[in-house]
Protein backbone atom coordinates (compact mmCIF):
# COMPACT_ATOMS: atom_id res chain seq x y z
CA UNK A 1 0.00 0.00 0.00
CA UNK A 2 2.47 2.59 -1.20
CA UNK A 3 2.58 5.85 -3.03
CA UNK A 4 4.54 4.93 -6.15
CA UNK A 5 6.04 7.68 -8.27
CA UNK A 6 7.57 6.18 -11.38
CA UNK A 7 9.73 7.92 -14.03
CA UNK A 8 7.90 11.22 -13.56
CA UNK A 9 9.04 14.02 -15.86
CA UNK A 10 7.86 17.60 -16.23
CA UNK A 11 8.95 20.66 -18.20
CA UNK A 12 7.97 24.30 -18.31
CA UNK A 13 7.99 24.86 -22.09
CA UNK A 14 11.41 23.69 -23.26
CA UNK A 15 12.89 23.84 -19.73
CA UNK A 16 13.09 20.34 -18.26
CA UNK A 17 12.38 20.54 -14.51
CA UNK A 18 11.91 16.87 -13.46
CA UNK A 19 13.73 13.95 -15.09
CA UNK A 20 12.47 10.39 -14.56
CA UNK A 21 11.81 10.86 -10.83
CA UNK A 22 11.01 7.54 -9.11
CA UNK A 23 10.45 6.75 -5.44
CA UNK A 24 7.98 4.98 -3.14
CA UNK A 25 6.49 5.84 0.26
CA UNK A 26 4.76 3.22 2.41
CA UNK A 27 1.82 3.88 4.76
CA UNK A 28 2.86 5.61 7.98
CA UNK A 29 6.23 6.64 6.55
CA UNK A 30 7.68 10.15 6.40
CA UNK A 31 9.67 10.85 3.24
CA UNK A 32 11.71 14.07 3.04
CA UNK A 33 12.52 15.65 -0.31
CA UNK A 34 15.83 17.54 -0.11
CA UNK A 35 17.49 19.70 -2.73
CA UNK A 36 18.87 23.14 -3.49
CA UNK A 37 16.62 26.11 -4.30
CA UNK A 38 15.11 25.62 -7.74
CA UNK A 39 15.90 21.88 -7.86
CA UNK A 40 12.22 21.04 -8.53
CA UNK A 41 10.90 20.05 -5.08
CA UNK A 42 7.67 22.11 -5.21
CA UNK A 43 7.13 21.15 -8.84
CA UNK A 44 7.38 17.49 -7.84
CA UNK A 45 4.67 17.89 -5.16
CA UNK A 46 2.41 19.71 -7.65
CA UNK A 47 2.88 16.93 -10.23
CA UNK A 48 2.17 14.20 -7.65
CA UNK A 49 -1.27 15.63 -6.86
CA UNK A 50 -2.10 16.68 -10.42
CA UNK A 51 -1.88 20.46 -9.95
CA UNK A 52 0.72 20.38 -12.75
CA UNK A 53 0.39 17.90 -15.62
CA UNK A 54 3.30 15.46 -15.72
CA UNK A 55 4.83 15.09 -19.19
CA UNK A 56 5.43 11.38 -18.65
CA UNK A 57 5.57 8.78 -15.89
CA UNK A 58 2.99 7.59 -13.39
CA UNK A 59 1.80 8.22 -9.83
CA UNK A 60 -0.34 5.75 -7.90
CA UNK A 61 -1.57 5.56 -4.32
CA UNK A 62 -2.59 2.15 -2.99
CA UNK A 63 -2.70 0.88 -6.58
CA UNK A 64 -4.98 3.70 -7.81
CA UNK A 65 -3.65 5.73 -10.75
CA UNK A 66 -3.62 9.38 -9.69
CA UNK A 67 -2.75 11.03 -13.01
CA UNK A 68 -5.93 9.87 -14.75
CA UNK A 69 -8.20 10.14 -11.66
CA UNK A 70 -10.71 12.97 -11.22
CA UNK A 71 -10.04 15.86 -8.81
CA UNK A 72 -12.26 14.47 -6.05
CA UNK A 73 -10.67 11.02 -6.20
CA UNK A 74 -7.21 12.58 -5.95
CA UNK A 75 -8.36 14.83 -3.07
CA UNK A 76 -9.50 11.75 -1.13
CA UNK A 77 -6.06 10.16 -1.52
CA UNK A 78 -3.73 13.19 -1.26
CA UNK A 79 -3.81 16.58 0.40
CA UNK A 80 -1.30 19.36 -0.16
CA UNK A 81 -0.15 21.93 2.39
CA UNK A 82 1.29 24.69 0.19
CA UNK A 83 4.36 26.79 1.00
CA UNK A 84 2.66 30.17 0.61
CA UNK A 85 -0.82 31.06 1.81
CA UNK A 86 -2.07 34.53 1.06
CA UNK A 87 -5.22 36.18 2.38
CA UNK A 88 -8.55 34.59 1.47
CA UNK A 89 -12.19 35.51 2.06
CA UNK A 90 -12.39 36.24 5.81
CA UNK A 91 -13.37 32.74 6.93
CA UNK A 92 -12.99 31.58 10.50
CA UNK A 93 -10.23 29.08 11.17
CA UNK A 94 -12.85 26.35 11.80
CA UNK A 95 -14.46 27.08 8.40
CA UNK A 96 -11.07 26.84 6.68
CA UNK A 97 -10.36 23.48 8.35
CA UNK A 98 -13.81 22.07 7.48
CA UNK A 99 -13.09 22.83 3.78
CA UNK A 100 -11.00 19.66 4.02
CA UNK A 101 -14.34 17.78 3.75
CA UNK A 102 -15.22 19.34 0.36
CA UNK A 103 -14.30 16.24 -1.66
CA UNK A 104 -16.85 14.22 0.36
CA UNK A 105 -19.83 16.60 -0.03
CA UNK A 106 -22.42 16.64 -2.79
CA UNK A 107 -22.61 19.68 -5.09
CA UNK A 108 -25.24 21.54 -3.04
CA UNK A 109 -24.60 20.10 0.43
CA UNK A 110 -22.98 21.82 3.39
CA UNK A 111 -20.63 20.35 5.99
CA UNK A 112 -22.48 18.52 8.76
CA UNK A 113 -22.13 18.91 12.52
CA UNK A 114 -19.98 15.78 12.46
CA UNK A 115 -17.66 17.47 9.92
CA UNK A 116 -17.32 20.50 12.23
CA UNK A 117 -16.70 18.22 15.22
CA UNK A 118 -13.97 16.39 13.27
CA UNK A 119 -12.42 19.75 12.30
CA UNK A 120 -12.42 20.85 15.96
CA UNK A 121 -10.89 17.53 16.96
CA UNK A 122 -7.97 17.88 14.50
CA UNK A 123 -7.32 21.46 15.69
CA UNK A 124 -7.19 20.13 19.24
CA UNK A 125 -4.70 17.39 18.27
CA UNK A 126 -2.48 20.13 16.84
CA UNK A 127 -2.95 22.27 20.00
CA UNK A 128 -4.58 24.95 17.82
CA UNK A 129 -8.19 24.73 19.06
CA UNK A 130 -7.85 28.20 20.66
CA UNK A 131 -7.72 29.58 17.08
CA UNK A 132 -11.02 27.99 15.96
CA UNK A 133 -13.10 31.19 15.90
CA UNK A 134 -10.37 33.60 14.79
CA UNK A 135 -10.38 35.18 11.32
CA UNK A 136 -7.94 33.12 9.19
CA UNK A 137 -6.54 36.33 7.65
CA UNK A 138 -5.64 37.78 11.06
CA UNK A 139 -3.52 34.99 12.47
CA UNK A 140 0.25 34.67 12.12
CA UNK A 141 2.05 32.85 9.29
CA UNK A 142 2.99 29.98 11.60
CA UNK A 143 -0.58 29.68 12.89
CA UNK A 144 -1.90 29.62 9.30
CA UNK A 145 0.57 26.86 8.49
CA UNK A 146 -0.86 24.83 11.36
CA UNK A 147 -4.48 25.50 10.27
CA UNK A 148 -3.73 24.40 6.69
CA UNK A 149 -2.11 21.27 8.07
CA UNK A 150 -5.32 20.60 10.05
CA UNK A 151 -7.37 21.06 6.84
CA UNK A 152 -5.09 18.65 4.98
CA UNK A 153 -5.32 16.05 7.76
CA UNK A 154 -9.13 16.30 7.66
CA UNK A 155 -9.11 15.87 3.88
CA UNK A 156 -7.47 12.45 3.84
CA UNK A 157 -5.78 9.84 5.99
CA UNK A 158 -3.87 8.51 2.99
CA UNK A 159 -1.13 10.90 1.85
CA UNK A 160 -0.02 14.30 3.08
CA UNK A 161 2.14 16.42 0.76
CA UNK A 162 3.83 19.30 2.55
CA UNK A 163 5.83 22.05 0.91
CA UNK A 164 8.33 23.44 3.41
CA UNK A 165 6.09 22.87 6.48
CA UNK A 166 8.58 24.60 8.80
CA UNK A 167 8.82 27.76 6.69
CA UNK A 168 7.00 30.11 9.05
CA UNK A 169 7.79 28.37 12.30
CA UNK A 170 10.07 29.42 15.13
CA UNK A 171 12.92 27.20 16.39
CA UNK A 172 10.75 25.44 18.98
CA UNK A 173 7.66 25.05 16.79
CA UNK A 174 9.63 23.45 13.93
CA UNK A 175 10.41 20.51 16.20
CA UNK A 176 6.96 20.46 17.84
CA UNK A 177 5.12 20.44 14.51
CA UNK A 178 7.27 17.78 12.81
CA UNK A 179 7.12 15.62 15.90
CA UNK A 180 3.30 15.90 15.98
CA UNK A 181 3.03 15.16 12.28
CA UNK A 182 5.18 12.08 12.66
CA UNK A 183 3.14 10.80 15.60
CA UNK A 184 -0.20 11.50 13.90
CA UNK A 185 0.94 9.79 10.72
CA UNK A 186 2.18 6.73 12.55
CA UNK A 187 -1.16 6.51 14.41
CA UNK A 188 -3.27 7.01 11.27
CA UNK A 189 -1.01 5.20 8.80
CA UNK A 190 -0.72 8.36 6.70
CA UNK A 191 2.20 8.73 4.28
CA UNK A 192 4.00 12.08 4.38
CA UNK A 193 6.03 13.56 1.55
CA UNK A 194 7.57 16.83 2.77
CA UNK A 195 10.07 19.15 1.15
CA UNK A 196 12.55 20.39 3.75
CA UNK A 197 15.43 22.85 3.54
CA UNK A 198 17.14 21.66 6.70
CA UNK A 199 18.75 18.21 6.29
CA UNK A 200 18.97 17.94 10.08
CA UNK A 201 15.18 18.05 10.39
CA UNK A 202 15.02 15.31 7.76
CA UNK A 203 17.59 13.22 9.66
CA UNK A 204 15.62 13.59 12.91
CA UNK A 205 12.05 13.14 11.67
CA UNK A 206 12.02 11.37 8.30
CA UNK A 207 12.20 7.64 7.63
CA UNK A 208 13.37 8.00 4.05
CA UNK A 209 14.88 10.73 1.92
CA UNK A 210 14.85 11.60 -1.78
CA UNK A 211 17.73 13.84 -2.89
CA UNK A 212 16.77 15.92 -5.91
CA UNK A 213 19.50 17.70 -7.89
CA UNK A 214 18.44 19.73 -10.93
CA UNK A 215 15.29 17.62 -11.21
CA UNK A 216 17.11 14.27 -11.03
CA UNK A 217 17.14 11.88 -8.06
CA UNK A 218 20.80 11.42 -7.11
CA UNK A 219 20.19 9.31 -3.98
CA UNK A 220 17.26 7.88 -2.05
CA UNK A 221 16.51 5.39 0.71
CA UNK A 222 16.44 5.20 4.52
CA UNK A 223 17.90 8.36 6.10
CA UNK A 224 20.31 6.31 8.22
CA UNK A 225 21.87 4.87 5.05
CA UNK A 226 21.62 7.72 2.55
CA UNK A 227 22.37 10.80 4.64
CA UNK A 228 26.14 10.85 4.46
CA UNK A 229 28.40 13.90 4.30
CA UNK A 230 29.51 13.01 0.75
CA UNK A 231 25.92 12.75 -0.51
CA UNK A 232 24.95 16.08 1.12
CA UNK A 233 28.15 17.72 -0.19
CA UNK A 234 27.13 16.65 -3.69
CA UNK A 235 23.47 17.65 -3.24
CA UNK A 236 24.11 21.15 -1.88
CA UNK A 237 27.41 21.61 -3.74
CA UNK A 238 29.19 22.58 -0.55
CA UNK A 239 31.57 20.46 1.57
CA UNK A 240 29.52 19.11 4.49
CA UNK A 241 30.61 17.59 7.80
CA UNK A 242 28.81 15.24 10.15
CA UNK A 243 28.74 16.05 13.86
CA UNK A 244 27.64 13.29 16.23
CA UNK A 245 26.33 14.38 19.61
CA UNK A 246 27.10 12.50 22.82
CA UNK A 247 23.61 10.99 22.55
CA UNK A 248 24.48 9.58 19.12
CA UNK A 249 22.40 12.07 17.12
CA UNK A 250 23.92 12.80 13.70
CA UNK A 251 23.80 16.42 12.53
CA UNK A 252 25.25 18.03 9.43
CA UNK A 253 26.92 21.38 8.92
CA UNK A 254 28.43 22.98 5.84
CA UNK A 255 32.18 23.35 6.38
CA UNK A 256 31.81 27.08 5.92
CA UNK A 257 29.88 27.17 9.23
CA UNK A 258 32.78 25.50 11.05
CA UNK A 259 35.20 27.96 9.52
CA UNK A 260 33.10 31.01 10.35
CA UNK A 261 34.78 33.71 12.48
CA UNK A 262 32.00 33.31 15.06
CA UNK A 263 33.76 30.14 16.30
CA UNK A 264 36.76 32.21 17.45
CA UNK A 265 37.06 31.90 21.19
CA UNK A 266 34.69 28.90 21.34
CA UNK A 267 35.86 25.35 21.92
CA UNK A 268 36.42 23.70 18.53
CA UNK A 269 33.39 21.67 17.40
CA UNK A 270 33.95 17.91 17.47
CA UNK A 271 33.33 16.58 14.00
CA UNK A 272 33.97 13.03 12.98
CA UNK A 273 33.73 13.07 9.20
N1 LIG B 1 5.58 28.95 -13.48
C1 LIG B 1 6.85 28.69 -13.84
N2 LIG B 1 7.28 28.90 -15.11
C2 LIG B 1 8.54 28.62 -15.48
N3 LIG B 1 9.49 28.12 -14.65
C3 LIG B 1 9.12 27.90 -13.37
C4 LIG B 1 7.79 28.18 -12.89
N4 LIG B 1 7.73 27.85 -11.58
C5 LIG B 1 8.95 27.40 -11.25
N5 LIG B 1 9.79 27.42 -12.31
C6 LIG B 1 11.18 26.98 -12.35
O1 LIG B 1 11.20 25.58 -12.10
C7 LIG B 1 12.36 25.24 -11.34
C8 LIG B 1 11.96 24.44 -10.12
O2 LIG B 1 11.18 25.27 -9.27
P1 LIG B 1 10.61 24.71 -7.89
O3 LIG B 1 9.77 25.79 -7.29
O4 LIG B 1 9.99 23.40 -8.11
O5 LIG B 1 11.97 24.52 -7.07
P2 LIG B 1 12.15 24.22 -5.51
O6 LIG B 1 13.18 23.13 -5.42
O7 LIG B 1 10.85 23.97 -4.86
O8 LIG B 1 12.78 25.60 -5.05
P3 LIG B 1 12.79 26.32 -3.59
O9 LIG B 1 13.59 25.44 -2.69
O10 LIG B 1 13.48 27.61 -3.87
O11 LIG B 1 11.36 26.49 -3.14
C9 LIG B 1 13.08 26.56 -11.03
O12 LIG B 1 14.12 26.71 -11.96
C10 LIG B 1 12.01 27.60 -11.24
O13 LIG B 1 12.59 28.82 -11.69
From TrEMBL:
Q: Which GO terms describe its molecular function?
A: ATP binding; ATP hydrolysis activity
- In the UniProt record, the signal sequence range is none
Which keywords appear in this protein's UniProt record, sorted alphabetically?
Answer: ATP-binding, Nucleotide-binding, Translocase, Transport
Pfam families, per database record: ABC_tran
* SUPFAM superfamilies the record matches: P-loop containing nucleoside triphosphate hydrolases (SSF52540)
The keyword Transit peptide appears for this protein = no
Supply the InterPro entries for this chain.
AAA+_ATPase, ABC_transporter-like_ATP-bd, ABC_transporter-like_CS, P-loop_NTPase
Which positions fall inside the ABC transporter domain? 3-239
Per its database record, what is this protein's job? Part of the ABC transporter complex HmuTUV involved in hemin import. Responsible for energy coupling to the transport system.
Q: What is this protein called?
A: Iron complex transport system ATP-binding protein
Task: Tell me what organism the protein belongs to.
Answer: Desulfobaculum bizertense DSM 18034
Amino acid sequence: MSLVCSKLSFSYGSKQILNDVSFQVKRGQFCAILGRNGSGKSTLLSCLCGLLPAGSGSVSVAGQDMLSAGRESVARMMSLVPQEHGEIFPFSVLDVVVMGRTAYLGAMSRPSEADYAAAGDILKKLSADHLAHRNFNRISGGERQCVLLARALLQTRETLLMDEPTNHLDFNNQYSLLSRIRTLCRERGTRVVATLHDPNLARIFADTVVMLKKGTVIAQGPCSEVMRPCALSDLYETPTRRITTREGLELFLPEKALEAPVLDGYPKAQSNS
